[in-house]
Design a protein that fits this description.
heterodimer; A: alpha+beta; Aldehyde Oxidoreductase, domain 3; Aldehyde Oxidoreductase, domain 4; seven-stranded mixed beta sheet; five-stranded mixed beta sheet; 18 helices; globular; B: Ubiquitin-like (UB roll); DNA polymerase, domain 1; 2 domains
Chain lengths: 760, 152
């Protein structure tokens, strides 16, 4: 292959280094208004009175909207985009666009303002009078399950439970020579994409409400239409390049508020969330409490797992039930365990809404299952790598859900290669302690099987021999668009710069679904591959006729068509396209890819096929800990994954590197500090993420099993790249201290407390 | 107020409200959208531009500050149709993913290289430590800056 697997500069990179991409907040229109959202300062309160009269009287204020101005004041919270009829126990929860009589979390939108300048919009907000009356709230998911806990919703605080049952737990534990039990805890964390939620909207000449927004999900045009009670076709979403997404731009962010302001004023409106709004106003990663009890036989074979997972959904459902399902399926880790009982529950509280964030529930469990592996190894006096290798899933093995792993997971190789990459162990020298560990992982790529996921793509040839790809796949920065170009260039034998991908638009490009769930390479990649192959067939047919040769003997390469073995008798692609047109052959193709589907899993036992396939990989990490200050410094991280097939090497490495550092932040420094549901650190000055000085030296190793379901055997890497990070950090710190670390973030205070507890 | 300064190699004379920051001036006043808002409190470095060769946080500095100074934004890195080596290195080495921190990051790197043409890796990491990136893990950014330094 000429293009696939290489690292050409991405077409979008040349624009990005010139500062030229028009992000969602970069467009301004004549007569544009500026939106501003007033949000609840309280986590749980009744709205007694809202008086907007003074604000509306301020010159330059065009609209001051409350719940009463919203035609249908509910956003549906279900999997965005295409949804099948079967939803494994339908979870249909809603969230108001603007709170009416009650607020359930700090940051909940209450009033939407549009004014001629941002300054006037701010002044108007000062003039709106809102009287709140405190309501009792609940801020801990376990406390929220108590019968007398304050109810966040009338339906009660239990949002959803899932269960996994395999084998016979009692028999399993009876065979165990060692049993380890630990409770693991993870915090609320924020995506911290550098671009806050933003967009601009206007009504175009056809009366279509058009929103140009930073979103991973163009299909939210439907949510806007439902809220405004207008036909779906009258709302269009144009996806700008995103300044990062990580799942935080998967749920509706600005869309409904912006659509409402545009629709009510009839004027263009820009809405950009401040960093503080971004912190308090959109979904977070779910905190989990995970109680794990794991048994192993004397030879190290895992025999039983009993686990209870409780996640904090915050004030609304968002995607919590589905995030929890990912946790359930991944709760065993990438290991064969014959006897498994897992109960997982997600609970409403008056904390921030939790929803999608890179790894989507499959990362919290890694802290637990990999912590258990090292704890078991210690209990068995066994090498932790040997214990893993003995239990790793292999091709043909079954997950606890009964699903057969049909690809070669290459887990042992990812672990060996990652560990080897750490090189020699340095001795600890007071006050510095060195710790090293691995964490293996698995994460799905592509959506749950029963969603019957699909994606479409269109490719057309221009008369000069260049190709245009149209596919509505939002580009969050991972190189989604450039991968589609690379696949097209490969199949059609074109130079990469002769393939142009245009637009990500709900109305003008074929629907490709969401850039979430590590699905775009699998879904849009396969749709583009299929379209490119079909187009190739027509071009080869045209070239064969022109060159008077058999189609089977035609090759396309370097922007030319020629008879195999005779590149000098070649035709330019421009001539081929003109010939094809003259011969009446199509030079534009639309194709659709359907992911394999399966019935829903059994909600009582978790048995069934939840996902089509998984990506497997390992992190090996070395840390230095100063036992006087408690500071943990990651010094070297090796990330080894089976990519299936590398489409673009630098993009793939970039996912591994970026995912690792995002995970190090989660493990070591990040936490939304809440006091009764109110954030104490909604600013980047107080919520720290890793800088270039915090990031360690990172080595990446990419394997290619060729056994993925994506184009050319590729798997997805976006989310899986982050999954092992927190397990590796907790295990490396535990290794250094000789104490099992079970709670994130592993701050200096926690390290010092662990050392004190050990000495005591 | 009226302001005269040099912007990306050209003289610039313009008007701006007193309360505007350099970020407001660039984006809302002059339509130069390459400089980005990230936090509005000088922490993330996304809005970094150069004033007299020094990196400044455009969101914190009042527009009046640029009077008489030489300002360089991402739009001014390319001269006479030729990309700055830092731009080429970022594009070719995969240092730009979502691209949102890229303008500020490149200008911070540019300021470093103006002052220290042969920085060590640690010096690069120190110089960039005020510019947050959530996509790359910094590996390819640091590599790109070192590649430019090494090629001189």
């Amino acid at each position: 292959m000429r293009v696939i697997g290489t690292s050409p500069a991405r077409p979008d990179a040349w624009e990005k280094v010139r500062g030229r991409p028009i992000y969602a907040g970069d467009l301004a229109l004549a007569g544009m208004l500026h939106g501003r959202i007033m949000r609840s300062p309280y986590a749980s309160a009744r709205i007694v009175r809202i008086d907007t009269r003074a604000a509306r009287a301020l010159p330059g204020v065009i609209a001051v909207l409350t719940a009463h101005d919203v035609p249908r004041n509910e956003q549906r919270m279900e999997l965005p985009g295409r949804m099948a009829e079967a939803t494994a126990g339908a979870v249909l929860a809603t969230q108001p666009v603007l709170a009416e009589d009650r607020v359930r979390f700090q940051g909940e939108p209450v009033v939407a303002i549009a004014a001629t300048t941002p300054e006037i919009a701010a002044a108007a907000a000062d003039l709106v009078e809102i009287d709140y009356e405190d309501l009792p709230g609940v801020y801990d998911p376990i406390a929220a399950l108590a019968p007398d806990a304050p109810k966040v919703h009338d339906s009660g605080n239990l949002l959803r439970s899932w269960h996994l049952r395999a084998g016979d737990l009692a028999q399993g534990f009876a065979r165990a020579a060692v049993v380890v039990e630990n409770t693991y805890r993870t915090p609320f964390v924020d995506h911290v994409y550098m671009e806050t939620e933003s967009g601009i909207g206007w009504i175009d000449g056809e009366g279509v409400l058009t929103l140009r927004v930073s979103t991973q999900v163009l299909e939210h045009f439907r949510d806007v239409a439902v809220v405004l009670q207008i036909p779906h076709g009258r709302v269009r979403i144009e996806g700008a390049y995103l300044g990062g997404g990580f799942g935080g731009k998967e749920d509706v962010t600005v869309e409904c508020l912006l659509g409402l302001l545009v629709w009510k004023t009839g004027r263009p409106v820009q809405l950009i969330f401040s960093r503080e709004e971004s912190f308090i106003g959109h979904g977070k990663r779910h905190p989990y409490v995970m109680r794990y009890r794991t048994g192993a036989a004397r030879d190290g074979a895992l025999v039983a797992l009993e686990a209870e997972l409780i996640s904090d959904s915050g004030a609304y459902a968002a995607l919590s039930p589905w995030v929890l399902l990912y946790s359930l399926v991944t709760s065993t880790g990438p290991y064969r365990i014959p006897n498994v009982t897992v109960d997982a529950t997600t609970v409403y509280t008056n904390n921030p809404v939790a929803s999608a964030y890179r790894c989507f529930g499959s990362i919290q469990t890694c802290l637990a299952y990999e912590g258990q592996m090292d704890a078991l190894a210690a209990a068995l006096a066994m090498d932790p790598l040997a214990l893993r290798e003995k239990n790793f899933l292999r091709k043909g093995d079954r997950l606890a859900t009964g699903q057969v792993i049909e690809c070669e997971p290459m887990l042992a190789e990812t672990m060996r290669r990652a560990w080897a990459g750490l090189a020699e162990r340095r001795p600890s020298r007071a006050p510095t302690r060195i710790g090293r560990a691995v964490a293996a992982s698995f994460s799905p790529y592509g959506r749950m099987c029963w969603t019957r996921d699909s994606a479409s793509a269109w490719i057309g040839m221009e008369l000069d021999g260049t190709a245009v790809v149209r596919c509505a796949a939002p580009d969050v920065g991972g190189g989604q668009t450039s991968s589609l170009c690379a696949i097209t260039a490969e199949v059609l034998g074109l130079e990469l710069d002769h393939v142009i991908a245009v637009g990500r638009d709900s109305h003008f490009t074929p629907r490709a679904g969401t850039t979430t769930a590590t699905r775009q390479l699998l879904m849009s990649g396969n749709a583009v591959l299929s379209a490119a192959r079909e187009l190739r067939r027509h071009l080869v047919g045209a070239a064969a006729a022109l060159l008077e040769a058999a189609p089977a003997d035609i090759e396309l390469a370097g922007g030319h068509a020629f008879v195999r073995g005779a590149p000098d008798r070649g035709l330019s692609m421009a001539s081929v396209v003109k010939g094809a047109t003259g011969q009446g052959r199509p030079v534009q193709v639309l194709e659709k890819y359907d992911a394999p589907s399966a019935p829903t899993i059994d909600p009582a036992t978790g048995q069934g096929k939840a996902f089509n396939d998984y990506t497997f990989g390992t992190h090996a990490l070395e840390v230095e800990i100063d036992e006087e200050t408690g500071r943990t410094r990651p010094t070297r991280l090796v990330s080894c994954f089976d990519a299936g097939r590398i489409i673009h090497r630098a993009n793939a490495e970039g996912q591994l590197e970026g995912g690792a550092v995002q995970g190090l932040g989660y493990a070591l420094m990040e936490e939304i500090a809440l006091e009764n549901g109110v954030s104490k650190n909604p600013h980047l000055a107080d919520y720290k993420i890793p800088t270039s000085l915090d990031a360690p030296e990172i080595a990446t190793v990419l394997l290619e099993s060729g056994e993925g379901l994506g184009p050319f055997g590729a798997k997805g890497l976006g989310e899986p790249a982050m999954t092992p990070s927190i397990g590796a950090v907790a295990n490396a710190v535990s290794n250094a201290l000789g104490v099992r670390m079970t709670e994130l973030p592993i701050t200096s205070e926690r390290v010092l407390a662990a050392l004190r507890a050990k000495r005591a | 107020m009226s302001l005269s300064f040099t912007l990306n190699g050209q003289p610039c004379a313009t008007q701006a409200p007193d309360h505007w920051t350099v970020l407001d001036l660039l984006r809302d006043g002059l339509g130069l959208m390459g400089t980005k808002y990230g936090c509005g409190e000088g922490v993330c470095g996304t809005c970094t531009v150069l004033a007299d060769g020094q990196p400044i946080r455009a969101c914190l500095v009042l527009a009046a500050h640029v009077r008489g100074r030489v300002l360089v934004t991402v739009e001014g890195l390319e001269r006479d149709g030729r990309l700055d080596p830092i731009q080429t290195a970022f594009a070719e080495r995969g240092a730009a993913q979502c691209g949102y921190c890229t303008p500020g990051m490149m200008l911070a790197a540019k300021a470093l290289l103006l002052e220290n043409p042969s920085p060590s890796e640690h010096e690069v990491r120190e110089a960039l430590s005020g510019n947050l990136c959530r996509c790359t893990g910094y590996t390819k950014i640091v590599e790109a800056v070192l590649a430019v330094a090494g090629s001189k």
